[in-house]
Design a protein that fits this description.
elongated; 3 domains; 5-stranded antiparallel β-sheet
């Protein structure tokens, strides 16, 4: 096989293997972070590290390296498929869930799949690098793309990923992308340094040129277009409404479960509380939209003006008052919040129940897409206030009642709902809220939360969920509960927005909303109280939807949105540490690299001009050294243990002048036993300068002749690299 590089099949040193495996494993970890859990990312790092290290430890004669490349590649694909099937067995069967627990089974599945996937990636990359002369290029591309993709995540809202970098940078007023770029450049340069040390530098300029072009293209794309991020709330696994409202079965909210919530850590908004408020339910509910009108297939956003008048569809350009009168104002209190959006949204959202939206100054247009304030009359009624209320409002028309009770023509809903409330105590048998609690309790105990969606394309996705495997995510629970409530004569709708645990606020005035907080929940309407949240919370889950608290980021964005002196004080406080800033580190690094490059070029210039002013007794040495520097710039170097005579003989067909230079040099080396006739005979003519070949014009020196031979036998791009190479002299010996 002509493209196999024999020199690359040797086993590299232990430090080289460890460094290379760490760099590749770090790239795998970076890529896996938004796609799996923390333990899954750890498994990806371990798998890639072990595979890369093991492949580098294999001798040329090992059975693994004897496998043909297609066979090795196919075997890797098969192993990944088997790992995927095994992972699916962990999450798709009750056997493992019973033994490991629902969360344990899911985490085990992530470990199995990502370990094997990363191991196969690392093994394939190292196989190509060891087997082919161009094989180091995929490694460089893999590492580069990993960090470029992660860098792209910081476009359009995902400003704090990964957290351990984002938090460190943001609390100091530094853009995390700068750190990521530095890490990525360092990783790529590390791999290139390994290639140079291992003697694979002949094709390195070509690889580097291609790599630079790719990096520039990716960074250009990221800068101007960004990368896919949660740009709208309907892409967070919840809503799916068309821009103009309404919709069809073909683009229904159940299809959004097909996403894997890979961007769940992304910050989407920051809420600044102007009044202290602690919800009784333990979670802050921010409603953005609602599904209330039955279109013959599913519930959808209302197209009638007399439905859901408490919702506001447009962002305020001036104060907007909610058209619906909020009931039970004596059992509610006013809470004002300022909301800064980090990603685009279709509609403004606010705490239950909003009565007024208004504009708010945007203190940082580069960070916040839009800012506005909301006044809400949050509920403060307890259980005693909810029991004994009649459903609906006496002010509703017959048409409104019909819309809030409309549902699929499936008798199973009514029969099942009656079954669920059969156990309600006799004194609460006719109470709407008690009935709703009975439905919620059953869904809590029997439902299984999972992002795996097998109901989206059913004629009635809610029925497929409720009367099927009871496995789904928030939209399934919300729809099922709403239909059951409506079958009991209780007006209900599905609200969509965000639900954030109250503990996330951590006692401060700011609350960070992330994509994982996107939620759908059912609401019922009780007389004199309005819409009341009765949200199922399944005890069983196959997905860990928790994220690490981001207190520092929450504080930073809150202070930024508040736009008062505390923000600058906070930045000054964090920046006043003994640690140098990232900007200082990068400037220092850039200056150091510039100085080193300047020194390298000065050394090269000095060695090239040295023969012109050196004494005659050292000419043999400096002339030969300058010739070797010229060859090294073109990537032509002596092998380890190769004598000067053998080096000249090896290159004689291409560079005959090198043989002459070598003979002349060896003739004058003190104490060297030069074998006459071993090469081109050198003669010193009367009146001629030393180092002139017999029969050649006196003005043509040997080095000039050698340079001419190099120019005629070398491609143009390689000559340009030779001119620009600052460290050619480093490889001369």
């Amino acid at each position: 096989m002509s493209n196999i590089s024999p020199a690359s099949t040797s086993v590299s040193s232990l430090p080289h293997r460890l460094v290379r495996a760490s760099v590749l494993a770090g790239a795998c970890w970076i890529l896996s972070t938004p796609l799996t859990t923390l333990i899954g990312s750890g498994a990806a790092f371990a798998g890639c590290f072990l595979a890369a290290f093991w492949m580098d430890s294999q001798r040329r004669q090992s059975a693994v390296l004897k496998l043909r490349t297609p066979a090795f590649f196919i075997a890797s694909i098969v192993l990944v498929m088997l790992a995927g099937l095994l992972a699916g067995a962990f999450t798709g069967t009750n056997l493992f869930a019973r033994g490991f627990g629902a969360l344990g089974a899911y985490q085990t599945a992530q470990v199995v799949f990502w370990f094997m996937l990363a191991a196969c990636i690392g093994a394939v990359l190292r196989l190509y690098a060891r087997r082919y002369s161009w094989g180091s290029l995929p490694e460089l591309l893999f590492v580069t793309c990993a960090f470029v993709i992660t860098l792209a995540a910081h476009q359009r809202g995902m400003i704090d990923r990964p957290y351990f970098i984002g938090d460190f940078a943001l609390i100091r007023g530094i853009d995390p992308s700068t750190i990521l770029m530095g890490i990525g450049v360092g990783a790529v340069l590390t791999l290139m340094a390994l290639l140079m040390l291992e003697g694979k530098q002949r094709r390195l300029p070509y690889h580097f040129s291609f790599l630079a072009l790719l990096c520039f293209s990716l960074l250009f794309y990221v800068q101007f277009f960004g990368m896919p991020t949660p740009s709208m709330t309907d892409n967070l696994g919840l809503t799916g409404q068309a821009a103009a409202g309404g919709g069809s079965q073909s683009d229904n909210p159940f299809r959004d479960g097909e996403n894997d919530a890979s961007d769940r850590e992304a910050p989407v908004a920051i809420v600044l509380f102007r009044d202290d408020y602690e919800p009784q339910s333990g979670a802050y509910y921010f409603r953005e939209s609602a599904y209330s009108q039955f279109n013959g297939s599913i519930l959808w956003t209302a197209e009638r003006d007399d439905l859901d008048p408490d919702l506001v569809e447009e962002f305020p350009s001036s104060p907007v008052t909610v058209s619906e009168h909020v009931p039970a104002q004596d059992k509610r209190r006013s809470v004002t919040t300022t909301i800064g959006l980090l990603t685009p949204h279709r509609s403004p959202f606010g705490l239950d129940a909003p009565v007024r939206f208004d504009t708010a100054p945007n203190p940082n247009s580069l960070r916040f897409r839009q800012t506005y304030s909301v006044e809400s009359l949050v509920p403060e009624f307890g259980f005693d206030d909810l029991i004994g209320r009649r459903p609906g409002s006496p002010d509703w028309t017959v048409a409104q009642w019909q819309e809030y009770l409309a549902m699929p023509d499936d008798p199973r809903y009514g029969e099942f709902a009656q079954h669920l409330i059969s156990g309600v105590r006799e004194e609460f048998a006719d109470d709407p809220y008690a009935k709703a609690l009975a439905v919620k309790a059953w869904l809590d105990d029997n439902g299984i939360y999972s992002l795996k969606n097998e109901h989206a394309y059913a004629a009635d996705p809610a029925a497929s969920f409720l009367f099927g495997d009871m496995t789904g995510y928030c939209i399934h629970f919300a729809y099922a509960a709403t239909y059951l409530y409506r079958s009991l004569g209780i007006p209900a709708r599905v609200a969509v927005g965000y639900s954030v645990p109250a503990a996330n606020r951590a006692g401060g005035s700011a609350l960070l909303i992330q994509a994982v907080n996107g939620h759908a929940w059912p609401e019922i309407y009780l007389e004199e109280l309005g819409w009341v949240i009765v949200d199922p919370a399944p005890a069983q889950t196959l997905v860990d939807m928790s994220v690490e608290p981001q207190d520092s980021l929450q504080q930073l964005l809150g202070d930024m949105l508040r736009d008062d002196a505390s923000f600058q004080d906070f930045i000054n406080q964090q920046s006043g540490t003994a640690l140098p800033s990232l900007q200082q580190i990068l400037y220092t690094l850039l200056l150091s690299i510039s100085i080193l490059l300047m020194l390298a070029y000065l050394i090269r210039l000095w060695r090239a001009t040295c023969p012109a002013w050196s004494d005659a007794d050292v000419q043999y040495r400096v002339q030969y050294r300058a010739a070797l520097d010229t060859l090294s710039a073109y990537g032509i170097r002596r092998r380890r243990g190769e004598s000067r005579e053998a080096f000249a003989r090896r290159l004689a067909p291409r560079l005959p002048s090198l043989q002459a230079i070598t003979d002349w040099h060896l003739q004058q080396v003190p104490g060297y036993a030069f074998a006459a006739g071993s090469g081109l005979a050198m003669q010193t003519q009367q009146g001629a300068e030393p180092g002139v070949i017999a029969g050649v014009k006196t003005e043509m020196t040997l080095r000039a002749r050698l340079s001419e031979e190099l120019r005629t036998s070398t491609p143009g791009w390689r000559r340009m690299v030779a001119i620009a190479h600052p460290l050619a002299w480093f490889y001369t010996y």
